[in-house]
Amino acid sequence: MACKSSWISTCFDKNESNKMSDIDSQRKLPHRDGVQRFNGSFTKEKVMTKDWLKEFAPKTPSDLLVSKPKLDQLNSWLQKASKTVGEASMLLITGPPGVGKSTALEVLTAMKNIQLVEWESSVDIDNSELAGSRNSTQSQAGKFEAFLMNSGRYISVLEIREGMKKLILVREFPNILILHPNLLQDILRRYHVMGRIPIVFSLPEQTEGSGGMFPKQFLEELNIHQISFNKVSDKSVMKALKRICMLNTGCDVPSAEVLEKIVGSVHGDIRSAVLQLYYECMQNKSRTREQHSALSTEQASHKKRNHITKPSTLPVGSSRKNSVNVCKKQLPANKTSQELESVGKDIQLPIFQRVGRLLYPKKSEEDAEFLAHDPEDIVAQTLSHPRKLFHMVLENYLKVFRDMNDSCRAIRYASDSDTMMSEFQERELTLPMALSTMTRGFMTCKSLVKRKWTPLTNQEYFTVIQRTRAVREKIIDIDPRYILVPRDAAMDILPIIYTGLSSRLDSYPYTNKICDISGIEAELTGQAEGRSNLQPALFTVTDSTSEIKVSSRKMLMVGKSWEKNMKDEERMTGTPYEIQESESDDENKISEEHVDAWIEDDIDFLDNFHHF
Amino acid sequence: MSLWVDKYRPNSLTKLDYHKAQALHLKNMVQQGDFPHLLVYGPSGAGKKTRIFCLLRELYGPGVERLRLEHMNIQTPSNKKIDITTVSSNYHLEVNPSDAGFHDRVVIQELIKTVAQTHQLDPSGQREFKVVVICEADCLTKDAQHALRRTMEKYVATCRIILVANTISRVIPAIRSRCLGVRVGAPNKEEIINILQSVCRKEGLSLPNELAERIAVQSNGNLRRAILFLETCKVQQYPFQPDQKVASHDWEIYLKDTAKMIVLEQSPQKLLQIRSRLYELMIHGIPSEIIFKGLLQELVKNCDMQLKTQIVEKAAFFEHRIHLGSKPIIHLEAFVASFMAIYKKFMEATVADLF
């Protein structure tokens, strides 16, 4: 039975197969007769053959490590989604691997008696399919769409319980859709109209700088709700490990010290924590039983295990996590855990944390001469997107610095590094040097540290660019010829035409001096009172009655091109970040501040122009 | 009706008001029927574009006055599409490649290629070359300038290039040597006054000499600015009063206020405010060099001689950095920060001396 169900249900009846395997494991636990999946020297150790990830997967919401508010969000969405009739609701869950996105979803759906149907990209061409019809080589995208449409409409024959609600879970996409996100968007638009079953997309965190598969606009267009899961805090990981240790009576519990090391090394990835715990337990055992060549075999078996668990996409679904025990790089902070063989996930600090380390450098505990965090780490992690960090640091350092001399030195370093960065002929060489100069500079030149909560902003530079373009557009609006001499026009012509519209410069002091020069403004206000005499003159200027024939698509084209240019930058600024639950570090003090005020300002500014 | 600046722009080389010897030279050169690539440089508002336009009119006749706006779509090697706007007549084409940011190299190459590859079928009665006017050539990236160098040589048979720049210090020597440099200096005070008077005569206004002189001084050798000031004064009040106030541009006042703020208080918080003001200026298209110059002029007023040398040294350093780097705001801010640090130290020292 178990065999059959797993054969049928690899593709969709996920929940069902879980149930089965859970039953299996429960049945097996008392009898200790686990299925032997591989032959080796471990036949006696039946515990090994169990998948800990599966066995100790949380069954109730209280076991979940997801933070309460996120869980509530998910819960309420599920409730809402199951009620809405008509259009299908969609949800996007993001979060770093191993925080329990899918697990949380599974537990909740199981509670609510909702069936989870999962899409699985097929790797090979199905033989049966080929045999069935001649032109069945359907594209992956087509298959994906068919899956969405069909699973929403038809109920599986193997479905036992009636009246069970369904939910589609998509954790991987056909490659073609990853390459061309607009294809995916088209499919989802169609599904939005046709489909009835709610869909959940579960993605690892979208990478910095890329718009990803779900751009913001698209999310808004289809009303896709987004929940982003945060990194699991070390405490909760510890809790989970302890729970497993308690449940697991089969083998020796590793010492608290070992547990701590595991927690420290996984950086909030529960899945890899569990795997590591498993590894540790095995090691203990092998040591006590003095088996020969323990390490190598352990490792081999460990890897083998991973291979076995992967394709079957078990509850915690280890398909994306093949780097679990690849020891990439040992962080300096973990140097003490050298006896932990298989540790070492390379972490990528979120940008806010990196900025935090730059602005609030911590002195090393052992020696005050040294910094707690190696600046080179930050450099190494920033190489792919240097500009963002650069802008963020520059935008925020003045809020943190208290002493004039310090900030003078800091900005001097920034100036150095900007000069180096602009040297684009030997970019590979100069970029790391520039970044290193800046990080080291900022980390060392703060003499007196005063810590207080400071909101971190990251949009100033881009709003400036945006507004600069807007102003430039205005110049061309006045007279298309000015596009050739924007510099002169901005300096001489614009002030003359717009003098008096004193909102031209932000926070412009209203002094008598300025009121005096605003002769044209007087004329403008005069328009309303009906005593205008320069009016025609000004209007001809703005109407651009030069001898230039203006093609009708002019403004449109210009606008478009700028839009295009803006795309990149918008992408960079698009995603709001927040750090909610990180270690009790300084980085906690940092959160995102919304800069809507700026944008509103900008709109006012535009309005003024139109009004004119 | 348009602004006086455009209305009374001279349209032939003989009608130019100053640098008449140079105008004559240009006229003679054009009458030969051919001329080398030109690099016209001089401060803004000195009449570079006017002079070029006159030259083109001399060359091609009134046909160059029929201008049209065109849009070109250019694709970069990285598949990014750039739209660039050009103003052109049948005989020439004006473009500002710095519009395309750091993709200006592609713009230069493509544009000149398309212009230069079309040969004139019937050279009788027409010139056998077209003219490409490149505005703000000093804002071109080094990359673009190197590309221009090759292009210039390659298409010399079908196309002449006129570069317009404020300063040649940022034009690479290779280009400088390939062009005939024509320096258009700023008009002096008397010349400006004469022109203002003649504009007023044409408008049928009477301009008191004192006011004309004050406008000339205020405009600082920038003829365009002088005429614009004159028109603003006219809007403000006519008949003119000799003691009438001459308005300076709002951004100049804003810049001066910024400098005052810097002197008033030196702290990182203040620097933050200053930065937003600097951004504000840059948003409105004021070039960073002008901001730098304006700031420095205001700031050194508050310094004694010893301090001045330090400040000016810093200014020179960071101004150079602006050209090396890519983000002027950083270097501007660095200069302001250095000033603040130096000035604060100085003030503290003097206060300590008092007690």
CATH topology of the largest domain in chain B: Rossmann fold
Query: What is the number of beta strands of chain A?
Result: 5
Helix content of chain B: 40-55%
Distance between the termini of chain B: 66 Å
Q: How many domain units of chain A?
A: 4
CATH class of the largest domain in chain B: Alpha Beta
- The proportion of strand residues of chain A reads under 5%
Mean pLDDT over the full residue set of chain B = 85
Characteristics of this structure?
heterodimer, A: 612 residues, mainly alpha, Rossmann fold, Zinc Finger, Delta Prime, domain 3, 4 domains, five-stranded parallel beta sheet, 26 helices, 5 strands, disordered C terminus, B: 355 residues, alpha/beta, 3 domains, seven-stranded mixed beta sheet, 14 helices, 11% strand
Summarize the model shown.
Chain A is mainly alpha-helical and about 600 residues long.
Q: Could you explain how this protein is built, in words?
A:
The complex is a heterodimer of chains A (612) and B (355). Chain A is mainly alpha-helical. Chain A has helices spanning 2-9, 14-31, 52-55, 68-83, 101-111, 127-132, 140-153, 175-179, 181-194, 216-221, 234-247, 256-266, 270-289, 294-309, 351-359, 375-382, 386-400, 404-421, 427-444, 460-478, 486-498, 512-517, 519-529, 535-543, 554-574, 596-611, and strands at residues 90-94, 114-119, 165-170, 199-203, 225-228. In chain A, α13 (270-289) packs antiparallel against α14. Helices cover 53% and strands 4% of the residues of chain A. A 5-stranded parallel β-sheet of chain A has the order 2-3-4-1-5, sandwiched between helices. With 355 residues, chain B is of the alpha/beta class. Chain B folds into 3 domains: 4-183, P-loop containing nucleotide triphosphate hydrolases (Rossmann fold); 189-236; 250-354, Zinc Finger, Delta Prime, domain 3, CATH 1.20.272. Chain B contains 14 helices and 7 strands. In chain B, α5 links the parallel β5 (130-134) and β6. The longest helix of chain B is centred in the C-terminal third of the chain and has 27 residues, at 328-354. Chain B is globular. The mean pLDDT of chain B is 85. At the A-B interface, α17, α18, α20, α21 and α22 of A face β2, β3, α9, α10 and α11 of B. Chain B: Subunit of the replication factor C (RFC) complex which acts during elongation of primed DNA templates by DNA polymerases delta and epsilon, and is necessary for ATP-dependent loading of proliferating cell nuclear antigen (PCNA) onto primed DNA. Chain B: Its main location: nucleus. Chain B: Pfam families: DNA_pol3_delta2 (PF13177), RCF1-5-like_lid (PF21960), RFC_C (PF22534). Chain B: Belongs to the activator 1 small subunits family.
